[in-house]
Design brief:
It is built from 2 helices and 7 strands. It is of the alpha+beta class.
């Protein structure tokens, strides 16, 4: 059984790609206000939410359990509407040496967009399951953000 892996989901959304991506790239502090899966989020180290040097502390629900981690933005590519979050410490480090979550949002020709989430991970040992609970979390988060942006 491999310790490293990558899992992906692609979700259709009605929000334009730029608007959806902007919430994560420029208004990350608002994400906790649009979903019940995030309980708290705050800047732990640094001056703002969007600098690659800033570290945020999150509390959220995965598989019905409240967990915590720290996160920083590793890659932000506004032109291609893609970004990568590095998750570490807290509950994450009990299961994974590496846990990176990437988002890319692409407009569809017939309106709306596709939000593609990719999780790259390295488990601490073979007894740890792949992070499918995080894909479930991202699916719910995507739906909640899409619904919120459509009302805005």
């Amino acid at each position: 059984m491999a310790l490293t892996g990558k899992i992906t989901t692609e979700l259709g959304i009605h929000t334009p790609a730029a608007k959806f991506f902007n919430l994560f790239a420029k208004q990350l502090h608002h994400v906790k206000n649009v979903t019940d899966r995030i309980h708290d989020g705050k800047v732990h180290h640094g001056d703002d939410w969007h600098s690659s040097e800033s570290v945020k502390h999150w509390s959220y629900t995965i598989d019905g359990k409240v967990v915590t981690c720290k996160e920083n933005i590793e890659v932000l590519d506004e032109e291609n509407k893609s970004m990568t979050f590095n998750l570490f410490e807290g509950d994450v480090e009990q299961h994974y040496k590496i846990l990176k979550v990437s988002l890319q949002v692409v407009d569809k020709e017939d309106g709306g967009a596709i939000a593609k989430w990719t999780i790259e991970y390295e488990k601490i040992n073979e007894n740890v399951e792949p992070p499918h609970g995080y894909l479930d979390y991202l699916t719910k988060l995507t739906k909640d953000v899409n619904d919120h942006l459509l009302k805005a």
